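Quick start: read one record
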Amino acid sequence: MMMSVSSTRLAALGLGLAMAVAASACTPLRSHQGYVVDVDLVNSIQPGVDNRQSVLQTLGTPTISSQFGGTDWYYVARDSRNLGYTLPHPSSQITLQISFDQAGNVTTIRRAGIDQVADISPYGKTTPTLGRERGFFQDLFGNIGAVGAPGAGAGPGQGGGAGRTRP
């Protein structure tokens, strides 16, 4: 009798542990990437008043700067969430674009949200190409017998050993 009570408690403990592990897989995971937005600091930047140095001191290094000309700085902040092992999906995003003139003074400040995020779904798993389709074994064994064969591109004097007159 003592043995069955102990095994029943052990089974209940095991079932409870299994249910706890299963329930933890459904817990939403939240993450933040990029710039940590401080609304007061962002609102303190004024066009015509601030320059590159003051923006750098106030907001810090930008997440991205424009590649051509360097007249725009971007501060990007994204909050994502996912359940268990699924891919994260953005729940909110703030993009702050600060444009400068040639003298380095702030000209415009633009804000964009998650509505500007594009969801790209690539088509298929392969890139379509022109020409014939070859399988794995054709790629692996396709050149056997073609080396040194007539019409394979290695004529006399072009290497490959065919038509050699000297060692």
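The mean pLDDT is 79.
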